């Protein structure tokens, strides 16, 4: 098993793509990284330099006074290889790639992702992601994620960032929390089996919870779960044909069939669950047509397997008169709500930030 200490308890962290814009991923990860600044050196890197969150922003990794042990990559896909190369050149031992638009798209993106993984492994480093939400360790005060997560004794590994955030809210409502959290993303290098083994050896972790759409090495996963010595819970996405297609579009995963997952759970003593519990009060459904306000996040797309061919568009107006730009009663009601300041609905909703 590889040494994942630089991933969970690094001596220094750099965030490439740090931003002063509160609406950007680079700002969220910079803020999270700085929360652990009393424990480790934190370097913010932005090609424009300047100051971010009251700290100096370096123009490149070459300007840093010390080599970062862990580097978070919040860069466009076009800059991914260059950023990885620069990180490895200064001696980074672990990388967390938020960058999307690679392996999950297949084709050239998948080839580029594989080539990067070869470089990372040749350098003796490890890579989480790409296309992930980040990483969290309560004990080492490492918070390279977009949102705050509650501390506790659950080790969470999830291929959906949005599901992890939802579970964090549910855990906090129940007085629980996470000892560690890893967003797998495309699972290009570090895989679920390796993380199960690491969490099994992590003393503060008392329970291991998993959401997976693709297990990569099934035999290694079963062996790691069987030897964990701790309860292992699994929520598996990608059931059925439509669910498999959704998982493929989410992280490029080739989802395993239900029968194979059930057999693996029996062999390893894993408790398989179907859906996370909810602590929210029942939602009162309003009558009449409503417009969609939120896109289904990846794990929900993977869980919903019915009517795959007839799924409604996740954004914008409903089909029909409104879609064609006509003035139907729903449009008039929406304008009145906007003017009253109660609800802000736009004719075409812009997608929210992808939290994966």
What does this protein structure show overall?
- The protein is an alpha/beta fold and 356 residues long.
- It folds into 3 domains: 5-128, NAD(P)-binding Rossmann-like Domain (Rossmann fold, 3-Layer(aba) Sandwich), CATH 3.40.50.720; 149-273, 3-Layer(aba) Sandwich (Rossmann fold); 313-356, no CATH class.
- It contains 11 helices and 14 strands.
- A 7-stranded mixed sheet has the order 3-4-2-1-5-6-7, with helices on both faces. The chain has a 7-stranded mixed sheet with strand order 9-8-11-10-12-13-14, with helices on both faces.
- 43% of the residues are buried.
- The model is unreliable at 242-254, 281-286, 289-331 and 340-356 (pLDDT under 50).
Our estimate of the beta-strand percent is 15-25%
CATH class of the largest domain: Alpha Beta
| Biggest sheet layout | 7 strands, mixed
CATH fourth-tier homologous superfamily of the largest domain: Succinyl-CoA synthetase domains
The CATH architecture designation of the largest domain is: 3-Layer(aba) Sandwich
Shape: globular
Look up the CATH topology of the largest domain.
Rossmann fold
Using DSSP, what is the number of strands? 14
Poorly predicted parts: 242-254, 281-286, 289-331, 340-356
Structural class: alpha/beta
Task: Record the strand order, biggest sheet.
Answer: 3-4-2-1-5-6-7
**What count of domains describes the coordinates?**
3
Radius of gyration, in angstroms, nearest whole number:
21 Å
Sketch the topology as an H/E string, one letter per element: HEHEEEEHEHEEEEHEHEHEHHEHH
Question: Number of DSSP helices?
Answer: 11
Mean pLDDT: 81
Give the terminus-to-terminus CA distance. Answer: 26 Å
Estimate percent helicity. Answer: 25-40%
């Amino acid at each position: 098993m590889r040494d994942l200490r630089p991933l969970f308890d690094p001596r220094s962290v750099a965030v490439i793509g740090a931003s002063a814009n509160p609406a950007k991923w680079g700002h969220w990860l910079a803020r999270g990284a700085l929360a652990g600044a009393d424990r480790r050196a934190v370097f913010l890197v932005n090609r424009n330099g300047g100051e971010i969150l009251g700290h100096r922003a370096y123009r490149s990794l070459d300007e840093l006074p010390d080599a970062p042990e862990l580097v978070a990559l919040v860069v466009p896909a076009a800059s991914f290889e260059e950023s990885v190369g620069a990180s490895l050149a200064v001696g980074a031992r672990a990388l967390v790639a938020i960058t999307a638009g690679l392996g999950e798209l297949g084709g050239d993106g998948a080839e580029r992702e594989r080539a990067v993984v070869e470089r990372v492994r040749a350098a003796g480093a490890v890579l989480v992601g790409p296309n992930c939400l980040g990483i969290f360790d309560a004990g080492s005060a490492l918070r390279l994620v977009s949102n705050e997560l509650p501390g506790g004794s659950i080790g969470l590994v999830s291929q959906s960032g949005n599901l992890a955030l939802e579970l964090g809210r549910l855990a906090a409502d129940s007085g629980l929390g996470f000892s560690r959290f890893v967003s797998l993303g495309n699972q290009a290098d570090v895989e679920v089996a390796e993380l199960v083994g690491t969490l099994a050896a992590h003393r503060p972790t008392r329970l291991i919870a998993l959401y997976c759409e693709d297990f990569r090495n099934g035999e290694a996963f079963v062996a790691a779960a069987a030897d964990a010595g701790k309860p292992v819970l699994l929520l598996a996405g990608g059931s059925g044909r439509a669910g498999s297609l959704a998982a493929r579009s989410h992280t490029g995963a080739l989802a395993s069939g239900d029968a194979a997952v059930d057999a693996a759970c029996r062999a390893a003593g894993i408790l398989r669950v179907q859906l996370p519990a909810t602590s929210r009060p029942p939602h009162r459904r309003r009558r009449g047509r409503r417009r969609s306000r939120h896109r289904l996040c990846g794990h929900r797309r993977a869980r919903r397997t019915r009517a795959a061919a007839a799924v409604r568009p996740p954004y914008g107006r409903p089909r029909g008169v409104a879609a064609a730009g006509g003035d139907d009663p729903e449009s008039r009601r929406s304008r009145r709500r906007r003017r009253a300041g109660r609800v802000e609905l736009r004719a075409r909703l812009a997608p929210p930030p992808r939290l994966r």
